[in-house]
Amino acid sequence: MIRNFRPADTAGVAHLLSSQFPAEERLLGMRPEIVFRVVKRVYRWDTRILLGLLRLVGKPVFRFLIADEGGRVVGTTLLSFPGRSVYISSVATDPSVRRRGFARALLEETRRIAQRAGRQYLVLDVLTENTPARTLYEGRLGYVPLREVHYFARDHLAEFGPERTALPAGIRAYRKSDEKPLLALATAEIPAEVLKVLPRRTTGLAPDGFDQKIFETESAAWVVDRGHGVEAAIGASRNPSMDAAHVAGPIVGPNADPALVRELVRVAGAWCGARGAVRVVVSVPVYETRTRAAIEPEGFHPAEALWTLYRPVA
Question: Quick check: 274 and 163 in contact, CB under 8 A?
Fold first, then answer.
């Protein structure tokens, strides 16, 4: 049976996800005990009303589907709804029920949800080395590659030094007025096919109130600005459910000062280290060559590679 997640599923879901995503577990350092706190907040009456209202007006935030066999969680799928697509993540099935159609059933229910929500595409990520999953998605379900993405990681955050109490000249905190020019810089490098399926409407640098409320996420962002407009930007976020912090970007314009961009990366790394992160992780699509050029000199190394796949809903 495919159904929506219930709070009573929390322990089963935490065990399934931690056991079936070993590469992600090693990289991010998930803390299963935090999942219980997140579920408690999501299922508060006020949060449930807000999520229900958003769903009614055609702006759903997420859905978490469960494959249930005799009351036991044997599969999961998490859906989010960016633009004209449904993004599928956390697709997992218990090894004891493999090859019995649970993954296919979860994905088919996802397709029906996407149809009802008026979305055009289904999108998911799969590790490059996960041959069985790619065989299912590409060989049987009609998904095709959209983009290649590499996760880069940086340990030993103390090497970035203490959190900056005063920012270097040419670097300042992100402002809401920076969003439009930075979005133009970010989208300039994205291929048209990717923008068609996953149109980028924000930089992801502005604080997300919902994310902060539900996941206790702390975030900050900074830009390079020498007085004639923003040239580059970076964001950092720290979620207590993971050992790793995340970096968004950096977004690097063609005329950005390389020395200031590197200092921007160091500012973000020091901020993450000051909040107890053991490493920093950043995802970089292969077409974002300036982003890669900015982080590699600061000690970031390739950690995992994946493909984003997609298919039409119909």
Answer: yes
Overall fold of domain 2-119: Aminopeptidase (3.40.630)
Looking up tokens 């930007």 gives 233
C-alpha 123/C-alpha 80 separation (Å) is 10
What pLDDT does 14 receive?
81
Amino acid identity at 227: G
Tokens of residue 260, six digits: 């200031």
pTM of the model: 0.85
Taking a C-beta distance cutoff of 8 angstroms, is the pair 291, 233 a contact? no
CB-based contact 134:126 (threshold 8 Å): yes
Average pLDDT over residues 283-312: 95
How many angstroms separate the CA atoms of 15 and 25, rounded?
Answer: 12
Please state which CATH class domain 152-305 belongs to: alpha beta
CB 306 within 8 A of CB 169: no
Q: What mean pLDDT is reported for the chain? A: 87
Common-topology check for domains 2-119 and 152-305:
yes
- Give the up-direction half-sphere exposure of residue 71: CA atoms within 13 A in the CB hemisphere: 1
Amino acid residing at 87: Y
Domains of the chain, residue spans: 2-119, 152-305
H or E segment to which residue 20 belongs? helix 10-20
For residue 215, give every residue at least 6 positions away whose Cβ sits within 8 Å of its Cβ, in sequence order, or none: 38, 239, 241
How far lies 170's CA from each of 97, 123, 206, 259, in Å?
Answer: 56, 38, 20, 10
